[in-house]
Specification:
UDP-n-acetylglucosamine1-carboxyvinyl-transferase, Chain, about 425 residues, 2 domains, alpha/beta, 4-stranded mixed beta sheet, 26 strands, 14 helices, binds uridine-diphosphate-N-acetylglucosamine
């Protein structure tokens, strides 16, 4: 199995191009199920999760074609993909496909809206908590779907089509907001989603749906209004930059030291992480190229953080922030409020010499002067990259195993970091 080897202690200097956001690309690709015309997506990242979703969508009848490289295009540039679901040939999403990635469950919304039925396996995905689907089911039922769960499958039917309604989520869910929003675009009448997720990826999907002919207002706020239309058409849309990838490299630069520009990153989507980085002693400048981050000479201040739905501090950056705090001057408290089991990186960071104790949903991190390289194991997507960040700053060699987790969500990770001087390489086999 592939591993990543890092020789730490080298400051990062240079530029890192930020890829299209995985968490926007996935729902955008799923939106191709809503129309028989072609949806063309630009800036789609090359990731294992994206590839997996192409396979899942192909099973429903989506034809996908990739545009070739263009003159002068950087080898790290995203891809342009044309997706056409001229006919949905299968409304069933089987366990073998859905169990590998939670977001594939979201096909239930478009399939139900367009075909009046969907049979979708209960999802899998990262092992970061129980992650139920009750909000999806209640939301789709509110739009008139009849839903049964049998033998691990959610069976949803709306023979006469979906009908708009008020849907109030008991707590904020990104996936349930994406799914009900997509379903409501083809429902009869108006749907109002209350307590909706406000993440930039929700806004990106809404903007694409609007380009496809949907009538949506309020995206990016807790109340989204969707006026159903009889059909959607093709469109062209560019996936927004990945704020989690940008935040990850910002924490890496803060921890390893140096001067890095995150090309194309949107500071607007990273307000809280930037606030924390500044409090920790990093210098951040927002330029027309992206975000520049520097830490030269100063130590890292210990800062507290709680994860929260957007615009709060993202749970997807919690592990990376914890890696940074392991080298803080003092004690930091990090509280996870979104997922109940998202501290699997703690024991691996401890192998590098970090001092972290857990009390319920709060981690107390006592900064140490130096981490020491060690063999560590990736456990989930974001946890694994926190080990890479720590390895970049640790003395000596760190080897991260089970890096298939990293390949799910970080495009060209080793190339991007080695362009900035990091000593990082992939060992295959
Ligand atoms: C998405 C992101 C993931 C991120 C998460 C929170 C993608 C592909 N994934 O995941 O990277 O960490 O948002 O920002 O975009 N919940 C229920 N019932 C439900 C649905 C959710 O109880 O029916 C709970 C979850 O268990 C969790 C919380 O709601 O505790 C938030 O989860 P949610 O926002 O739905 O996460 P995802 O959409 O799966």
């Amino acid at each position: 199995m592939d591993r990543i080897k890092i020789t730490g202690g080298v400051p990062l200097e240079g530029a890192i191009p930020i890829s299209g956001a995985k968490n926007a690309a996935l729902p955008l690709m799923i939106a191709s199920l809503l129309t028989d015309e072609t949806l063309t997506l630009q800036n789609v990242p090359r990731l294992a999760d994206v590839q997996r979703l192409f396979d899942i969508l192909a099973n429903h009848g989506v034809d996908t074609s990739f545009q070739g490289k263009r003159n002068g295009q950087d080898s790290l540039a995203g891809q342009t993909v044309a997706m056409t679901a001229s006919a949905i040939v299968d409304t069933r999403a089987p366990y073998e496909l859905v169990s590998k990635m939670r977001a594939s469950f979201w096909v239930i919304g478009p399939l139900l809206a367009r075909m009046g039925e969907a049979v979708v396996s209960l999802p899998g995905g990262c092992a970061i908590g129980t992650r139920p689907v009750d909000f999806f089911i209640d939301g789709l039922r509110a739009l008139g779907a009849e839903i049964d769960i049998d033998a691990g499958y959610v069976i949803a039917r709306a023979k006469n089509g979906l009908v708009g309604n008020r849907v109030r989520f008991p707590r904020i869910s990104v996936g349930a907001t994406h799914t009900v929003m997509m379903a409501a675009t083809l429902a009869q009448g108006e749907t109002v989603i209350e307590n909706a997720a406000c993440e930039p990826e929700i806004v990106d999907l809404a903007d694409c749906l609007i380009a496809m002919g949907a009538k949506i207002e309020g995206q990016g706020t807790p109340t989204i209004h969707i006026q159903g239309v009889p059909r959607l058409h093709g469109a062209r849309h560019t996936v927004l930059p990945d704020r989690i990838e940008a935040g990850t490299y910002a924490f890496a630069a803060a921890m390893a030291g140096g001067d890095v520009t995150l090309e194309g990153a949107s500071a607007l989507h990273l307000e809280r992480p930037i606030e924390l980085l500044r409090a920790a002693g990093a210098e951040i400048d927002v330029t027309n190229r992206g975000i520049r981050i520097r830490r030269n000479g100063h130590g890292i201040e210990a800062v507290d953080a709680d994860t929260a739905p957007y615009p709060g501090f993202p749970t997807d950056l919690q592990a990376q922030f914890m890696a940074l705090m392991t080298s803080g001057k003092g004690t930091s408290h990090i509280t996870e409020t979104i997922f109940e089991n998202r501290f699997m990186h703690v024991q691996e960071l401890a192998r590098l010499g970090a001092r972290i104790s857990l009390n319920g949903q709060t981690a107390t991190v006592e900064g140490v002067k130096h981490l020491r390289g060690a063999p560590v194991m990736a456990t989930d997507l974001r946890a694994s990259v926190s080990l890479v960040i720590a390895g970049l700053a640790a003395e000596g060699d760190t080897e991260v195993s089970r890096i298939y987790h990293l390949d799910r969500g970080f495009e060209h990770l080793e190339q991007k970091l080695s362009r900035c001087g990091a000593q990082i390489s992939r060992i295959t086999g």
